[in-house]
């Protein structure tokens, strides 16, 4: 019988697989162009600024990726962490607003 993975386990596997798939050679790092292509394809609504060169350069600087260096998985993970933290904050605010509305009814 096949192993049944949880949604969270599948999400982690998807992140790792997508990172490796972004490189035609399955390298441990991505070029800036490979990273930009992956982000534009996989995170188009969360990372809108990566679509142009200026936005990509700003994002790479924020991730502390040195110019001319590859983007390592830890750099990508830093972006995922930042996006997940922002999403958590948005959802937390929604819950607080809903709770306030419930208590006022």
Automatic annotation (TrEMBL):
A cellular component annotation (GO) from this entry: extracellular space
One GO molecular-function entry:
calcium-dependent protein binding
- Pfam families the record matches: S_100
Domain called S100/CaBP-9k-type calcium binding subdomain: residue spans: 8-48
InterPro entries for this protein: EF-hand-dom_pair, S100_Ca-bd_sub
Please state what the protein is called.
S100 calcium binding protein V1
